[in-house]
Protein 1
Amino acid sequence: MDRASFAASPSLPPPPRTFRGGCVSTPEFNASAYCNNKLVGAKFFYMGYEAAAAHVVEAAESRSPLDTAGHGTLMASTAAGSAVADASYFGYAKGTATGMAPGARIAAYKACWTAGCASSDVLMAFDEAINDGVDIITAALGADRVPFYSDSLAVGAFSAVRKGITVCTSASNYGPGEFTALNVAPWVLTAGASTINRQFPASIILGNNENLTGTSIYEGPPLSAKIPLVYGGDVGSSACEAGKLNATIVAGKIVVCDAGINSRLDKGEAVKLAGGAGAIIGSRQDFGEQTAASAHVLPAVGVTFAAADKIKKYIRETVSPTPAATVVFLGTLIGGGRSAPRMASSSSRGPSFIAPEILKPDITAPGMDTLAAYSGENSPSGLVSDTRRVKFNVIISTSMACAHVSGIAALLRQVHPDWSPAAIKSALMTTAYNQDSAGDIIRDLSTGGASTPFARGAGHVDPNRAVDPGLVYDAATDDYVTFLCSIGYTAQQVAVLTRDGSVTDCATRRGYVGNHNYPAFSVVFRSSASAVTQRRLARNVGNSTTTTYTAYVNSPPGVFVTVQPPTLKFSLLRRTLEYVITFTPQQWNVTTNKYAFGSVVWSDGKYKVTSPIAVAWLPTAQVAAM
């Protein structure tokens, strides 16, 4: 937290009077030294962690607000860090590092520790942030596949949203499989991760002069020409597990490591401990084109599954001379002929495992190979053996995407202080773009083809367009309670989320979950003969109070879509209007097309308000009730 991204700024006035928080001092965290008119709050919560599983907060992780892991620093600086010139990771990604909302102030609430996050600590952190008067909460925490009433993030976020606080979360990093998205509550803003137009290429030159391209942020001296090359599976461990590699054989060689079992960084460390000269880390087969730039402790390069297979084939088929390779590290490349953005393979996907009628993730933002401030209390690799310390690090994570969206939400909150969290989410979703730099639908690194709304949500966030979206789809606490009743929750289960002592009579609120006023349409067909109808309320927030919007439908293949009425005529007295959209399956072949996608666009000539349509054939048994 002593990074330049959080330095005091003479251009920032004192915090608003509505903010009631502050910084807590401990022997390891001197609040007067760390906190200022930029970092205006710093608190920590640990009692649940120590009580729940008999864990003890160790000295290395500091029983204080101090970020000893690096994740909080990365998130805070990406969302709202001040501009820092000449930022880089050992020269990689060099430039000015700026958070999305550099004029915003930051309050940090530390609730997670080495062995995880206790639910009670997470809830205490949420409650404290709410009481302190924050405007936006960035909560990129992993979640379990549990009902909303058992999910501390969902419970805490519900309390925040009902107070007008937007909560931004991450979809998590379990992609590219379906139903992997987490943090799927409709009251939170859930971000998936995508690339930017920056790469860190490295060339692998094999002994037969075949050249393969990977990704690396190695910062040390270059490798010598043609070093002996071995496959981890031939020397003790295909995944390059610590202690399993034969040091006698590995010494002085480059080792090819398969994905799985341990982390990429652990693989590099294992090779180094065995005396290896370098590592080539293969990716998962289902990750397709995604490779990873990681802060390895030795010369290392990440390659696709296909490239790793080619290298292993070369090793198998080469007897004389001995298999060999070298790696040429090429630094930072902007553009490079590859379209951007592209969806990260690791970014978790929909449909929602709880309520597939709610599209998740909501939106995508940069989360691949992003540069952000990093804690000086941890190494860039996170490995204990790594003694390096850096001011900035390069990270792949939906957490980074979440932080980008959070900062943009803060900007919207500044422009539209009267907007609800749902209105802010709606503006971000309906103005998102879906074409990449080549003019094609945003691609998916896992397949190489076009991504779908189950990966990218409504599209890539577009801050400038979101300021003036034309229409918004709003929702309030009562709407979320109705949603909870619609998915079958009892009054007792709803009460866990509302936390206000009220008793909800769900018998009077049972409805169709697809009617929740969401800025997207996710349709589930249980029967090939049944049409599905959903209702929406759109509110005019454009510059003209009197205007007429017309619906333009791009129907998903195999589905007939109608909108009634096809036009919405807004006026000073009719600022909010309802419409009904009906989806009828036509020639649906579930054996080849379980999903189909389209969109509906409302336009008055000036604004284009776009909602994605995701249609799924999901027999009842396929969706768990949670």
Protein 2
Amino acid sequence: MPTIGVKRDLLFQALDKKYTDDEFQTLCFAFGLELDEVTTEKQMLTREQGDDAAGAADASEEVIYRIDIPANRYDLLCMEGLVTGLLVFQGKIKPPKFKMVEPVGGKRQVMKILPETAQIRPYAVAAVLRNITLNQAAYDSFIDLQDKLHQNICRKRTLVAIGTHDLDTVQGPFTYEARTPENINFTPLNQTKSMNGHELMEFYSTHAQLKQYLPIIRDSPVYPVIYDANGVVLSLPPVINGDHSKISLKTKNIFIECTATDLTKAKVVLDTIVCMFSSHCKEKFSVEPCDVIQPDGTTVTYPELAVREEIISAQKANAAIGISESSEKIADMLTRMYLEAECQNAGDAITVKIPPTRHDVIHACDVYEDVAIAYGYNNIRKSLPSFMHIAKQYPLNKLTEQLREQVAQAGFTEALTFTLCSRDDVARKLNKTIESMPAVHIANPKTLEFQVVRTTLLPGLLKTLVANRKMPLPLKLFEISDVVVADDDTEVGARNERRLCAVNCNKTAGFEVVHGLLDRVMQLLEVPWKSASSAGNGYYLQAAEDLSYFPGRCAHIMLNNVAIGKIGVLHPTVLQAFELTTPCSAVEFNIEPFV
């Protein structure tokens, strides 16, 4: 779910009303959103980079609302769309009507797609916003919306890449081509040196934000590029725009182009951008169309700005949600949700107009959902289903709950730790190498604390011990939860494994304490003790060597001659790595074989 940050004072100014934090949270909830956090730019920088970074950046103390937006509501990813949606929801304005306006002189901007682009990114769409006025807040919102769309519907620019240009600095008609890297030369955005394709790839290979987009085209024999009539490069999608056509606060006419591997997504992105920011044009909610000449010679006009009609049944809407409202009331609720609706001749049918901003509405069920949001989920009466259900608890979860109660009764305190941890936690601190661990790695970790999915419950419990080391001894902790293990034999390359882990921390290691817990659990599971050499089913301990445990003080837990876990006294270097000063013994084993 995307999160947007909007400045509180600017938001209240646009809404023409001031709210308390609680009042605005209530408004967001009624509209189907969630006010995630009330913060400031300085607080966010301090949390992410520390006090020094926040001070050096001269961060603002202005209050920022961070709002969670549903992933399918692309129209709410900027302040312009959010404000319009809330004002329509409150009934203060009617849903705006977007229109196409032909340019003065009647000559549209033209973009021609050359056949070579089929090798790399075959589609392109374009539009123009005329006589637009951007202040700093609107400019920042314009850039932020593009970034949010790139991360969301554009799938990190693999499906769609957006380029925005100052139309007054370039000359149409434009051509969308695919050329070899050596034949592309231009000055990238905010740079002073001209580069070819290869030099540009090398230059941005260490860039914090742009390096992730280079692999999309790097290995292709040709790179996509957009030129104007004078041979000026507008952009090299999906990596970077040219510096020549960059927009600024002085820009009055914006040329927007979207190149794509998915034409439908490109249309959605273009419609969203022009609808949101046409509110800043001199003629509000007006967009100038562009002609895109396809490789086969046909001409298509963009943006489409299509308004679709959907006919729904009020009776079906009531039945789906569990309410009983009249057709007129449902039509009014839909209009508040940015979907203009009217009843058909006092009948059951309701005609709903789907605007170009609401590409998330695909089926009648999507319309029913908006009715439920406008009605208020908390206002829907709870009722029992009209038919019988026969269900049972998932066996593994049932066993987990039973064991939690019994282990707690054995004198251990339950902990609930993070599923993600650092590479050091599961490897170096346990005297192992990360290469030897079957760990699932996070591709782009935001912090050093969350780099891999845990392969063992032990580090989480040891960190919990550290956080509670001022408590009186003994400290006896346990956790029953999932770990994730890389496994090439599974469909997704990894599998979950439910484990029980317990740690005893005291002046002496107390191996007998965790051994006693193991025996108690096996007694509850009705698994008998057996010797290693005897026949039949049961469990026993088999000496083992593990770098995480003290030499000669570690054993495999064998169930029916198969190792399901380990028990032992932790190695002093492991304790030192986790900043513990008292001896610990631990037991950890897989409980899935007992289901």
Protein 3
Amino acid sequence: MNGKKCDGSPKPKMKPTSEVVKEEEEDAEILESEKMVSEEPFDLDELLPVIGEFGRYQKLLLWLICLPACIPCGFCAFNQLFMTDVPEQYWCRVPELENFTADERKMYAIPMIENDGVESYSKCSRYAVDWKEILNYSDVDDGFAPNSSWPTEPCLDGWEYNKTVVQSSIVIDFNLVCDYDIYPTLGLVALNTGGPVGVYLFGLLNDRTGRRISYFSCLATLLLGSFITAASTSFWMWAFSRVIVGLTIPAVYQIPFIIALELVGPNYRSFVTVMTCTFYTFGIMMLAGVTYLIRDWVELTLYTSVPFLLYFLYLLVMPESPRWLLMKGKLEEALQILETMARVNGKQLPDSFRKRLQQRVLAEKSRTTKRTETSIGAFDLCKTPNMRLKTILITLNWFANETVYLGLSYYGPSLGENQYLSFFLSSLVEIPSYIICWIIMDRWGRRWPMCLLMILSGISCIVTVVLSEDAVTETLILYLLSKSMISASFLIIYPFAGELYPTQVRGVGIGTSSYIGGLGLIVIPFITYLGKDNLRLPLVIMGCVSVLGGFTGLRLPETLHHRLPQTLEEGELFGQDWTFDECFRCIPIKKSPVGSYENLSHDPSDTALELNAAVPINASTYATGSGSCSTERTPLEIARIRRQSMKRLVRQASTMDTQKTKDGAMQLTYWF
């Protein structure tokens, strides 16, 4: 043999066995990576850096559609506070004395009572006498005076009201005073009872029919409830209408929020969240001005709802979420929206994305068997001791934040000398708290800012008990400080809870904690009702709840600069080494040597994690075992395969997401 084949051509040079084995292993890794890529749902977050994470398209959508769409929630969640204004002076109506002046009717028919050493006319009783007989046999013009020994009775014919300040309210129209004074509180309970039900129902609609249909159905339900409110002729009809309105709160706020989150890149979701909260607060501030100008409760209902009929014009411009379309396999519609997004942003949709997406849709349609996945529910959060403790503490803190925030919002008009100004200021103080919170939580962590703000907010409420009764301004200032701090704390609890729950159960965990925490909204109207007899008692109760939540939150582990858990097993280990000393560490220690998930994916040359070793195809070509064949990979494909080596890594910078399905589509959460 002379090193040639039979036909005279030279034999190919044989590679050493070790090189052949190495190439085969690399090929196997490549094929395994490609198999994993083809089996998992496409993540739109990988495409957004190519066509624009926060370009002109997203900015127009955010500023002109999504943020304004949040305003109806603030209007309709709090306009009810001003429908139930109670006049300072009211007394029993006596039909037989209607020919006399109001002062004379009170003097003749209403007994005097002593309250805190001050005598005043009774609001809930009248003399039980036969006025026809008395008027026939008495000369009223000669100085008639009632006899204080006469028997009394309840107001059987309703009440008269001094309408100098409060000109119109359901209290006046439906006589909700004395034995019926708790009815306005029941109206708030009715409003808040509809919330969890609405989030569930519109959440189903959101996932099955899309964001557009869900939002406009929610808006139509809100307007229907508002119109029934304006047409109400009895308290129970009015209360029923508030349940209908409550079904849309906070769903009517969360659906445009989800649309915005799904269309921007992960790096901008914190900004979108803060801006959404800010616009929601601007809506409440605008409501303070509307209520000051409109004093009739029926007109107020219409002025705070009818203008939102114009929002149905958004049907012409509001896009469907491409994430939802991809999840439902509606390829052409999703591509059309993504092409528009890329064009407006001055980018180009990669052809590789079209091809891969078409392959995936075809694969999904032809697949006859689906992978079986273990269903994970809320009870799985409580099977192990550390996860059980963290779940309880997260839920307790969510309950405390949501209850105190909304309780203070409800109580604002009761404080100060002008209810409209107090309500406006209570909304205004939220704006700087959001901005400050946004800055500090990525520097000082989540746990200490949240807990410290809750504790200080509670203390500000509790110390009002030592103030004198006439310290109106001082009480208002402490209240505003408390409202500002609890607003910032409430903003932190959402991303903090999302980081504490493992990725595997994040949606279930956030959904469970937010629903249980939302039950406090049904209780809080009864707490604010206690202020009828003692103005500071509700503040003390809410302050104690806030302080308790703040101290218990210190037991939670910090998440900033940590690699966060992905599975339930990792979640059980995360924070298991917690020590009491961590309660006194304000600024967390950097334990993770890497930056954020997004920073890694935006820096293809980063070798800090030796991604090239994990997936040896970050170059433009690779060699197959069959010869010199080379295949060029696009940046999108590299990003997808690179992701396989980062399964155990997570974002370190705060990213505020809502809960998601396994396909990446975002879901509603009971949070506002």
Protein 4
Amino acid sequence: MPAGGFASVPPAGVEFEAKITPIVIISCIMAATGGLMFGYDVGVSGGVTSMPDFLEKFFPVVYEKTNDPTINSNYCKYDNQGLQLFTSSLYLAGLIATFFASYTTRNLGRRPTMLIAGVFFIVGVVLNASAKNLAMLIIGRILLGCGVGFANQAVPLFLSEIAPTRIRGGLNILFQLNVTIGILLANLINYGTSKIKAGWGWRLSLGLAGIPAGLLTLGALLVVETPNSLIERGLLEEGKSVLRKIRGTEKIEPEFLELVEASRVAKEVKHPFRNLLKRRNKPQLVIAVALQIFQQFTGINAIMFYAPVLFDTVGFGNDAALYSAVITGAVNVLSTLVSVYSVDKLGRRKLLLEAGVQMFLSQVVIAIILGIKVKDHTNDLHQSYAIIVVVMVCVFVSAFAWSWGPLGWLIPSETFPLETRSAGQSVTVCTNLLFTFAIAQAFLSMLCHFKWGIFLFFSSWVLIMSIFVVFLVPETKNIPIEEMTERVWKKHWLWKRFLDENVDEEVGTNATDLKKGGHSIGLDPASQF
């Protein structure tokens, strides 16, 4: 038993008894529809921004540039800050909404936070689909961004907390799987709506986002709250009842007691964001923030936001560009399934490192081909080279989809202790959305100035992040969330230095008051798990 724990709290290393119950599977599938909405928003924006009718109505300057060869430059024809703002405003709004979502996640629960996200999504979809002017369009995107902020805060926590330890990784990746399915559906719908000659195809593309928005709202009404959240809010009997229901066994006392103890520790923390900056929480914070920054600097969202625009830029033509985006979307979904199957078998580190090699090589090949074959006024990319570019983009997307995509969300959601989990997830989502916004707002301008060198820029970041994983990212496979400190951070060559028990780590009280009979009474989570 760890020093300072209660006699009834199980020792580190115990895996709690749990069956894979239908209620867990159904709850996770319903909750993960938040990822479906997020993915659809990512995918649909790139498609509609390459539709002439949409550009003519909202971005006439870009429309003129794409149709006037005398002022056109392949790499620069879509370079417009307003057009980039349409895409990136969603992520800026999500960033701000995350701070409010942290409060609701902690004080109201994971389930109400998902419901709030669904309502934001529905209102945003209605405004976007019926937009009469650019202001209406941007306001709709901002409301969708608020939905993203709330959903991305609550859903990964919900999935990590409700899933049994041995399949936590696979169920958590349902969120990312739904993101990829949402992107694929958006690409397919964009491909179909681009054929509508009446000029309202873009409205249908934006309006169909109402389906995943409705599913998330319905799901939030149907799923159970997590026992962690119920216990954290003092609803012990209800939390125990839900735990018994989702684990499918009566033998839930050890896990229940550990959750109660973790909750007791959490209640001592009056300022979770301030506590997040304490020395003992630095390992989780550094890993979470770094993973979000690196995830965006793989270049994946640049490709997914603007896949149709990107393929059109390198000479595929509008129809072929949308078709190529559908192919990469399908690869994205299938490769995420690989991660669902393998993450709890191979572990997190192996997937990240293998993908690093694959992404680096594919981006270098793309840069070489575009550097040699695509000039500012190239009208067409030879078919054989075009196929190689699509294949290499698919190789890149597949590697991301079974590594940095899902694991960028999974690892932070399973490593923060309960007392800083909502705050930690908030910082994680905030960092992700901040850098997503930065890339979305800058990518078309970067493409204009860097040209083919944009892929070398991202590949250099892939190399850096792979080195980071080798030395600083520990393996978290099959380890209960509340035992991460004892079994992961205290055994890492670097991070264990931040958990030195001699360092003053009191939580809201004097350290000398935390000793009783020579033993800690457990206010320090580093001494608990």
